[in-house]
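Today's session is about reading a structure prediction critically. Students often jump straight to the picture, but the first step is always the sequence itself: look for stretches that repeat, for charged clusters, for runs of hydrophobic residues. Only then move on to the predicted structure, which in these notes is written as discrete structure tokens rather than atom positions. Here is the chain we will use throughout the hour.
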Amino acid sequence: MHKKCFKCNEVKALDSFYKHSKMNDGRVNKCIECTKKDVIKNRLDKIEYYRSYDKARASKPSRVIARKLYRETEEGKLAVARAHRTYAETFPERRKAQHILGNAIRDKKIEKQPCFVCGKEKVEAHHFDYSRPLLVTWLCNYHHRQTHELAKEFKQAA
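Below is the predicted structure for this chain, in token form.
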């Protein structure tokens, strides 16, 4: 059996449409491809809303606990290892710089400093240039994220 998508006007097989029990034929009138395109467009149009929604949802205590419990399972440990491996393969220069800096901190060749902006003691290293792994600015998590957001906005504006 076939059906015509009202969005792209193409006639497609019935299994190219999502199921919907309230429709006469049990399928939505828009094909799966058009539905996916609309969902992506909607998310991009309202990206700030969805980012804040996703952040609030991920911060719910039940979800935080569920993620922690998952990471402790064998499957969770494998997922974390896969993510680390993918990161190292995707960003080899970053990973190498982080590794060199970590070794320098361990060997006490470099000492962590308070946040450059606010003075907090709990800090992260920010590399402006990964080819110079020991040249870092120490920032708290908040200011580190802010720095990356500004860099991202600057890159988009250019």
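Discussion point for the tutorial: The beta strands are 2-4, 11-13, 17-19, 27-31, 124-127, 136-139.
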